[in-house]
Structure formats: structure tokens, C-alpha cells
Amino acid sequence: MQNENLVQISFFNQLMLVHPRKKQNERSEASVQVSEYFVNAEGTGDKVNLSDLLGTVEKTSGASNKTKKQLRNLQSSKETLELPLNKQQTEKIQRGIAYEKTTAEVSCWKNIILQNQKAEQMVFPLNQESSGPKRVEQVVAGWKVQTPLEQEIFRLLHGSRQPVNDPVLTPVEEQSLKAMSLEEAKIRRAELQKARALQSYYEAKAKREKKIKSKKYHKVQNKAKRKDFLKQFDEMVKTNPEGALEELKKMELSRMEERMSLKHQNSGKWAKSKAIMAKYDDSARKAMQEQLQMNKDLTQKMVVPSDDEHESIEEGLETVPDFVNDPETVIDPVNPWMRGQLTHEEPEVSCVTAEEVQTAEEENEEEEIIGEFERKRKLRQADEEDLIPTEEERKKIQEDVSEFNTLFRLMRSEKTREGSNQTRGGLNTAGEEDEEGLLSEGQIRVRSIEDLEVLDEVVEPRAIEEPSAPQTAAAEATSEPPHKKKREINLKEVLTKEAKAVRLPFLPTVVDEEERDEQISIIKEAFAGDDVISDFIKDKSRQEAAGRPAVVDLTLPGWGEWGGVGLKPPRWKRKRFRIKTAPPPPRQDQKLPDVIISEKRTASVASHQVSQLPFPFQNTAQFESSIRTPIGSTWNTQTVVKNMTKPKVVTKLGAIIEPMVKEDFIKSKTTSAGDLVFLSNCPEKINFIIFFCCKP
Amino acid sequence: MKVKVLCRNPDDYVRETTRDIQRVPRNYDPTLHPFEVPREYTRALNATKLERVFAKPFVASLDGHRDGISCITKHAKSLSTIISGACDGEVKVWNLPRQECLRTVQAHEGFVRGICSRFCGTSFFTVGDDKTIKQWNWEAPGYGVREEPINTILGKAVFTGIDHHQREGTFVTCGQTVDIWDEQRSSPIRSFSWGVDSFSCVRYNPVETELLASCASDRSVVLYDTRESAPLRKVLPFMTNEITLCFSLYTYDIRHLDVPVTVHMDHVSAVLDVDYSPTGREFVSASFDKTIRIFPKDKGHSREVYHTKRMQHVICVRWSADNKYVLSGSDEMNIRLWKANASEKLGLLSAREKAATHYNKKLIEKFQHHPQVRRIARHRHLPGDILKQKRELREMREARRRKEQNVRKHSKPGSVPLLTEKEKHVVAVVE
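^ Those are the sequences you sent over. The predicted structure of the assembly is below.
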């Protein structure tokens, strides 16, 4: 007991040594509780050294030398131990470490979040089970044996060690597979590789050959095959009569099948259409005949072939004319049913030179027609080339457009500069109002479309820019009713310029020569009253004149000279006070003779136009292109519309959307990166929303 | 005389069987369908107008409580069931499609401060002003049997909030400390406290299930990990003198707490509750200014504001688990059911209707920058007093901004830094 006490005291003193503190005063009064640290004992005043305690250790033989050495070192060192950190600081460190850990853990969602933000469509709830058919193994795996019959069956199955699940190998087979030596396995693998490679080559070749569209190629190919086969068959007859007989039977069977089927009977869709066309089209007729011939050939009873017949078959095949294989000459690409000469071409177009007529007479009628079509097509193509503006014209137009563009850009930049100045001046409120997503809240309730219209009036859109002065002048000029002249019909004036032919390919214009004349006369009659072209030219010049800047006259009579009626201001005055403004930018239609392009800005449209480049777009071209592509079904096919109008988030009606489960999305680190498949999309839940809470 | 006939193949326009769809020959040649942009613009404008006309978000109101509603919770497994707790200690279970109360329980004396549903949907927990946590069975007791909780835990102090773990049998409460409880034990497994604040709200992260956050009464938000022994970090979002101006919500990335990711501002009074949509793209907030607002998670302003004449201070709000509805409980004893998407047509849609709505939505999105479309799409009705408050706030904000600008103008360049709206709000991050 005393010993223990001693040890305690010495230990305490040791502590006191380490941390030099104030020595506690001993209390002398009597008290109920006696502290264990202040029990008086022997040798209280003496200090106990570590060596006193550990002295015995030195003597005992059991302690290792190492510990003895450490103890000696400890004894010799005079330094005091450092103070342990206070509670606040330790906690802070702990928190810091824990926070780092959590941060790292949370960061593993980064990829998934990024993926989901980029995803075109997300379907909730996530991880839906596919409703399609399941594999047998999947069904079996989740199936529990219930009835005694099932139990028996399963016992039998497991007894024979038959595989039930995916690797369809018995244990014995697996073992035998494992038993194969390395070399054997290598050889086997090489063989398999070779076989696979060969197979893939063969497949590729077959695919390539199958893709060839030429009918002729296939025909030749088939013929070669048949020939080959017949050769083989001949040999077979000599060498292996039984095999030949079997082949013969096979042939007979195929013949029967051919007879039973409706193939090549001229009863299919294609054949019917051909039958309709056969009256008009020789090629169709020929195609039909060819098919019938094919049928006849295929259904012919096969006799043991002799050389003569073989030849005859070949001949029969040879007689099929080559042009049958050529694609049909479609006259009108828009309307393939229009085979006859339905459109009436201009006389100079359709007229044919005498030589051509002579040659045409030599050919038969159909060929003549075909040839004529060909010629017409060529002529039409040439015509269309004429219609398309030549290089020079195009360049001119481009120049005009580029000029306009530069001007527009200049104007834009000026405008933006002004705008930025204004905002710098402290007019930020408008910008703030305009901020994207900000609701415009007001006291007007919208209950019907009429209310929305009213809303239009109440909430005035941004002030519309006033068109510049010369433009208004132009507007006034145009608003004047053009005074009409009554004059006799002057055919030369009516048709001063050759009108460009307008083609309407969809209208079956069946017009005869006489009718055409009639039409011309009708047109003439219709335009009898007005001189359209000269009117137009005058109109244009008037607009141009209105657009030109007027000279501002600021001369005041009587200043510096005599005034009075009929006095002209002197030259110097005129020179000084008549101000010429800078010429406006060239008109867009300056180089286009038969076009008037109005450069006015219409106020009614302006309120519907976008005045500032919206946020995500970098330039106007980008924005315009985003607007230009239509998404409606009027312009796009059904699938395209479906794709384009796909909603971003799809939810299933009446299904609970559970939060993501981490294990489903973030695989353990052992799986390679390639295996990571993020099945679906997830709500972004890393961010906590923090809110300002002050409950009443 | 030659007779020329236009000949068509009937196979190209006649159906083979009556079950085939009608073949509609359509030529997509763009020259035949000119003016695609103006036509689509007209359609977009009409779609926008119709969207506003059909925007009738209010679905139903559930009345029956005899005091203000303090908390609402969804059933974990059933879409049609919710529970609400009132300020008189009453808890009611509701059936949403039938709009009726299924069961009423006098759960606590004083306020019911928080309700949470167990993840399996068999029981729910309530905490109240009487310092107790009670666990109740979801199923009502039989006829003539008294309503009694499965479990009652008596705590040392008032609990102000409760939330349940997503997959395990633990839950967390807050009051003077944030405590984590095991369902099987009557004393908390762990309690966190940082300083001497009391906490008003605590919530588990539904995805990272071991993380939780709490709001303390000293305006701070504290982050915890249940696996750690100490809380992780504390943010002090704003200064006291600024409170008058910031009735905003702040989204933080928990990895970078020094600056909020987004400041969501539109409310004109204190925000009392918030709930994320199950898709995680939007959230709804309830405010003391008698409105509910729906915010996209990454936008600074709300996309929708709901209010009715009779709805008073909204105390709690929840987003339904199928992402279709929003529930709000307010001071005047009613629970209101709103559509999450105001102009959406409810119920099953035919394929053509669906296609049309998708097309219209896309059109509105495409032409959203056009002034008329934007103006109509953004218009919302607001009651006069809220509008007035909003204007007032804007004025104050503007004045403050102007003053700051002037100070900057008249002081040494660089001495008054230009702070963004986000940077203004965080006072300190305590490690």
C-alpha cells in the first residue's frame, strides 16, 4: 500500500517537474474529503527522480538493452515536453481534416454532374428497369423454387451438374478447358484467330459485292454461277451419279417452288405498274416480257442437259437487250408519271434542225421521242444556266451586300458605343430590368388573349428609333398616289424588255399552239392600260431622288446688302450659307436595275425585332443562324421534328423520383475507368441550398 | 387529236389495309414553304400567349386545421399521401386526389415543430414544443382504438426540427444541439454543438446520405458529417445590418463555402422554407411575403410566383415526388396544392397533344429573346402591396449602389473594391 502511494506521489512530482506549476498549499483544517494527492507519507519532502523508479529496470535481466538505452537517453535529456494544444485548436484541426475528406468525397460526383448538365434529355425516375424481354438467366436467377415438382426438377438439374446460369459449360467442360496446356492453347488460339480473320474477310467481301447496285454485274455474276454449277453437274453425272440425282431433285424442288410462288408472274406491285405503263412505254413492255421469260425459264422442266440446250439457254439470256438495264429516263424529276410531252416549249427551243429530222426519221418512233426528250433536257439545262446570274453579276451583288454589311456594322458599333456611354453615365436601371429571367411583375391579370393585347398597349415596348429624315421624305414620296395615264395600247412599249420566263414545274400546262397565241393576246390586253416598265423606272428614280440629301439654304435676305422683291442673294452668301450635307450611303438597289429595295425601318416590325445580341451568342451571325433553322413539321420530317423538339426533362406520370443512390453511379475504384458507365442522369444535389430562416 | 393524261400510281396514295396510317404525300422542298422564320415566330407568339392564358397553377386547397400549419411532409412511398403539423400540436394525414383528411392526431402540446417520414413509408416522426420526439404508425389504428405513438422519446430541450436518413434507421434532430439518434435508442448517438447557438432547421443530403446541414440562430449554416466527431464548417452568410435588404436564397457549393454559387433574389420578405424538386433542377421557396416562388437552381431570379388573395404568410413548402405539384402550408390554416408548371395540362396526353406541347415549348425557347415573346412570357400578376414593397426595395438597393459608386468616385482609386453581388454576402467562413 505504502509502496503504491509512493509511486503515485513520485509520479505526480514528476509531472510537477515537467510542468513547473505553483506548488499547492497544504490545507491544515480538518475536512471530510481527503485528497489522495496530499496524503502525508514518508519522505514527502524528497524529490523522486525517474532514476529512482527505473533503477530496478537496470538491474533486471529481462528488460531488453534497447529499452534500457532509450530510458537512459530520456534521463539525460533536459528539455521539457511541449504543451499539448488547447481544445479549440485541436477541434479546429480535426474539423479541417474532416472537411478536406468530405470535399474529396463529394468531388467524385463532378463527372456525373457535368454529364447531366450536357445531356440532351434526362428521363426520370432514373435507373428504370427496361420493359423489354429479359434473358433467361436473369429470370431464373430471381426465381425461387416453390412447388415440390419444381424442387424435384431442380434437384435433378443440380444433381447432373448441368449449368443453369450464364456460362453454359458443365464443370467437367470447364475443367477440361483449364487442363489444356499453354502451347496447345496458343495453337488453338492462333487457329481461331485465323478462322475469325478469314471469316471477317469473307464477310467484308460478300458485303462489298452485295452493295454493288449494277444489275448487269449481278446478272453476269449469276450467269457465271449457273454456268459453273452446270459444269459441276456435268462432271457429277459422270463421276457421282447419285449426287447428281440429288442435285437434280433439288432443282426440281426449286422449280416446283417457283411454280407455286407468284414470283415472276407479273402480279407484283412493280409488274402492275409496268402493265399500266406498257401501253405508252416500250421499255416497260420489254421489262415485262423479260420477266415472263424468266418465269418460263425457271419453271421449265429440267432434262438431263445436253450441250445444245445449254447453248440455247445462253442465247436466250443473251437476247435480252442491254438498254433494259439502264435506269428509266425520267423526264420530269418532280413528276415521274409525266411521260408524255406535256409541257409546251417555246417554238425556238423545240425546233429541230433539218439534219436532225432526217436522222430521226431513220429511227423508229419511240426512239425519236426519247431522243427529243434528251435534247429538250439539254436545252432546258442551258436555259437554266442563263437564268442563274453570271459570275460578274454575282460578284456585283456580293459587293453590294458586303458594302451594306460594313455600313451596318459601323452603325452598330456607333450605337453600342453610345449605349455603353449611357450606361457609364449611370443609367443602369434599364439594363437591370432587362436582365434575363427577371419576371416583369405587375398588377395586371392576364385571363385571355385579349388581355395580352391590352398588355401590349399598357407596357410600352422600348422606344422605337425614328427613321432618319431623308427616309421619311422617301416615305412621303412613295405615299403619293402615282398619277395614272390613259393611253392607247403601244405594244412596243408594253414589251420593251424581254420578260424572264417563270417556270412552274408543278402545273401540267397542256397548251396548244393556238392557245398560246391566245394567252399572249390576253396578257397584252390585261396590261393594255399601263406602261408598267417605264412607270417602274420613274418610281425608282423618284425614290432615289428623295433619298438624296437636300441642300439647306440658310441665306437671309437683307443682311449685308439691299433687300427687296426680286433680289437674289449674292454669290458669296450663297456659297457660305448653303450647306450641302454628306451624301448618304449608296442604295442597296443601286446596281440592280429592276428592283427597288426599301431601306426604311418600319415601326410596326421594329417592335418585334431583337435589338440587342442575347447573352450566350457571340455574334449576330450565330444568333441569326439559330433562328433561321425551322423546327416545325411543315419544314422537317417527322423524326427530325421529334428529335428537335425533344424536351429536356421527361418525367413519368405518377412515378416517385427517388434521389440517386451513390453505389449505382459511382463504382468502387477497383473497376477500370473504361468500365464506368453512368447509366443515367442525376439531380445535382451536391449543392445545399441554404436559406434565411426567421420563423415568426 | 392527241389526248394526254396525267397518270398516277394508286399504290402511292391508297392504303393497303385499313390499319395502315394514311399516307400523306409531303414535299419538303423549302421553296414551297417560304417565310419559315416569320411563320414560326407567329406560332411562337401565339404559343406564348396561350401559355399565359392557360397558366392556372392553383389546383386545390385542403382545409381542416385549426391553427397555422407549421410543417408538411410527403409520404416516402405514396404520392397521394401527405402529413401536416399545425401550431396547435395537431397532425393530419391527407389524401391528395380525394382532397380529404384521412386521420387526425393530437400529437403534441404546443407547436408541432417538425415531421419526417421514415424512408420505408411505415412510420413517421414528429417533434414538438413539449420536448418530445414521437414515432407514429402510418396506418390508422382500428375503430375504437386510441391513437398512440409507437415510441416516445423525452428530450432535455425543445426540438425545432427533424429529418430522417435516406436508407438507415437513424434520424437527426436540432434544438440546442444537433443530435443524431438511432431509432432503437432513447438517447442520441452523437450530438454536435458549435458555440452556444440554438438551431432552427436541420436537413440530410439525400444523395450523400452521411452529410447534413443545419441553420443556427446566429445566421450561420453549419455542415456536418455523421461519420466524423466534429462539425465540418460554418458559414456566416450576411451581416446583421444588411438583413433589411437581403431576402434572398443562397446556393453554396460545399467545397467552396467562401462565395455562394448563386444568389436567388426576388422575395420581399424573409424566406421561411425551401424544397428542391426531385429532378434537382429547380427549387421552391416559401416566404413571409405571402408568395411562393420557383427558382431554377442556377438562375438568380424566379421563373414563377404563386399567390392568392387569401394565402397569408407561407410557412412551409414541399415539391411532390413526381415533380408535378408543389404543396404549401400557410398561416391561415390551409394547405394549397399548386402545379409546378403553371400552364401544364394535367392527366394523360395523346401523342398529338404531347407533340404539340413539345413543339410549342421549343418555339418559345427558340424565340425567347424576341421582345414581344419575352414580355408576354415574363408577365406575372402581383398583389399591390407586394409590388409596392418590391419597388421600395429596389429603390433602396439603387440608393445603396449609387452611394457606393459615389464613394468609389471620390476616394483613392483601388481603395474601394468593386464587389459582385455574390461576394457581398459572405461575412466569414469558420473552420
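The first strand of chain A starts at residue 122 and ends at 124. Strands of chain A lie at 122-124, 440-442, 552-553, 578-579, 649-651, 688-690.

Shout if you want it in another format.
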